[in-house]
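Below sits the subject:
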Amino acid sequence: MPADPTALPTERTPGALQERGHRASLAALTGRGATRGGGRLRGLIAAIADRIIDTAPRIPARDLATLRAQFPGLTPEDLADKLVAGACAATATVGAGVGAAVMLPVPPAMPAELAAEVTGVAAVEIKLIAELHEVYGLRPAGNFRQRAMACLTSWAEERGIDLAKPASLNIALGGQMRRELRQQIMKRTLRNLPNLAPFMIGAVVGAFMNRRDTRRLAEKIRKDLRAHQVPWDDLPGSAPAAPGNG
């Protein structure tokens, strides 16, 4: 009995391993459209969603005073541009690293690579969203954990937080809210799955796709935040800290 009894005869040849590791791995996980394969994929995405929810409160984000100290003399738009450029470079690095790893003669398992890709990109983008809210004077209410949950919701829904609508904050991570957020993350991940799989196409294209998608998300968030932007001079205690502090 072969190690993979579902493999076709041509897939058991020595030259087929690389093909299965790249193009065929996604098809294998989804069972080439079979219900059982689709269930496995959804189970993986659900596990990734739970990991993102648990990780979000531990993602470090700089406040406005720290950002202004680290990037002195910039306007809000210039500072936002800097943050977006840095996030795009970071997610591109994630895509390139994952894409390069699976180009090895014996590529890592597809589920592990997908999990690394999604959670890595999510961490960078959630941090970006938190800091963009600081730049536009729209810090969510609550403590650090509550603000992190609000930014996670913003990331999952791909929109800025409207501070004028308390219901949009979703800062209380109760059982129902967690289930709803988990569903939102799953929908987004499944919708963007082709873009979150650079291991199918290699490091260069994987880096490009991640950079493009992060920039697109940032544009959506910034558009929402500009509509409610609060000038820095109107914010209490927003003066920049001394360079190097924080």
Summary: Residues 34-231 form one domain. The first helix runs from residue 16 to 29. Residues 1-35, 100-108 have pLDDT under 50 and may be disordered.
